[in-house]
Amino acid sequence: MAIIKPFKGLRPQKAMAEELSCLPYDVMNSKEAAEMAEGKEHSLLHITRAEIDLPEGTDVHSEAVYKKAVENFKKFQEKGWLKQEAEGKYYIYAQTMDGRTQYGLVGCAACQDYKDGVIKKHELTRPEKEEDRMVLTRYTRANMEPVFFSYKAVPEIDAIVENIVNNEAPEYEFVVKEDGFGHAFWPVNNPETNKQLEELFATKVPATYVADGHHRTAAAARIGDEFAAKNANHTGDEEYNYFMAVHFPDNQLKIIDYNRVVQDLNGLTADEFMEKLNEVFEVEDMGEDVYKPAKLHEFSMYFEGKWYKLTARPGYYDDTDPIGVLDVTILSNLVLDNFLGIEDLRTSKRIDFVGGIRGLGELKKRVDGGEMKVAFALYPVSMKQLIDIADTGNIMPPKTTWFEPKLRSGLLIHKLD
Predict the structure, then answer these.
(1) Rounded CA gap, 380 and 202, in Å?
(2) What is the pLDDT of residues 361-417, one digit of tens each?
(3) N or C terminus of the chain: which is more exposed, having fewer CB within 10 Å?
(4) pTM over 0.85
């Protein structure tokens, strides 16, 4: 069963919560981070992307950046912009997008659960990407940003969350003007409720699933081992044995599409390309209006000014295989690898990926602009598919899932000492 415990959160004053909160560090570059933080003295980006407070061109992995992050983190606490709770507790974090709200519980997951496979993953990680967040955590001795987890919904937990959000005013509540997404936050202040939630997780939640944040999760587990090795009096109860995660019930989450654009046809003419497509798909010309896939195994393609519906022909995919059933697998096997010559999605420079949050119009723009030759839109993966893959120990192909809204960093920080 999963260990998810309450903790003494470090969090902002109510009046500055909106300004202090920001998008995760990995969805922006240094220039974008600087623009987002401009005029916002309290933005957490001064810690998570501390290079914005150093001369332009500073290496983002340099010691100067990490030292600046520590300096700014200390300043945020000394000025009272961030204050730590006196008692450990859970927190409810709600996100609203397009009229749909999802409610997550913020608690500390156990590093040991990750090593034991109780926390299940569906993506591979790269050590170099883990290392950057490890260094920041090593310097600040804190989880600055939460990881996005899911679990199979538990009605008793849902009932507790519903009771709190229906009967208590949120501590923080705001809508981000740039994207229109709503965010609300409630500390769970009743000690008995916190105890009940901890027991429910320990008895009703056999596993949790990394939805977004595989590198931060792996980095947290490695940091836990590192801190333990340096502590001669290590007991296993120290805060560094845990890391901050927002846990959402699976039935509230919605994965959106993650699409592909390709630079060239690998030497094929347009006619040869379409002929090969017809061998493995039923191809239907949909004209100039944007066409979005409506079901599993249906794709849309934008090519030479037109949209096409591609339906995979029976016999070219395996619905009994948790990986074979995925449309990203079908597209890779039948098209990208088969005749476009893109064998490794992680390393190929001829393919790019576009999150569905940007709309299919972005695919058309990339192709019409001449940057790309053809675009493919996919039907989104379901939470059931994600859980099936994680439960069977399989790994999804790269760039398969896209979750929105992104968690706001800065509403809660977990200190490791």
Answers:
(1) 31
(2) 999 999 999 999 999 999 999 999 999 999 999 999 888 999 999 999 999 999 998
(3) C
(4) yes
- Taking CA atoms, 124 is separated from 128, 376, 393, in Å, by 12, 23, 11
Residues 246 and 289 in one domain: no
Beta strands 142-143 and 82-84, pairing class: unpaired
Residue type, 28: M
Q: Which residue's entry shows tokens 């008793």? A: 156
Q: For 146-203, what is each residue's pLDDT tens digit?
A: 999 999 999 999 999 999 999 999 999 999 998 999 999 999 999 999 999 999 999 9
Q: Hey, what are 359's tokens?
A: 């709309």
Q: What CATH number is associated with residue 353?
A: 3.30.1760
90 and 58 co-located in one domain: yes
Whether residue 81 sits in one domain with residue 210: yes
Shared-domain flag, residues 170 and 281? no
- CA dihedral of residues 292, 295, 299, 302 (deg, nearest 10): -10
Give the residue numbers spanning the domain of 320: 258-379
User: End-to-end CA distance of the chain, in Å?
Assistant: 26
Total count of domains within the chain: 2
Tokens of 139: 């310097």
Is there a single domain that holds both residue 246 and residue 311? no
Say how far apart CA 149 and CA 153 lie, in whole Å: 12
Tell me which residue has tokens 């299919």: 360
Task: Looking at the structure, tell me whether residues 112 and 154 fall in a common domain.
Answer: yes
**Is 399 inside a domain boundary?**
no
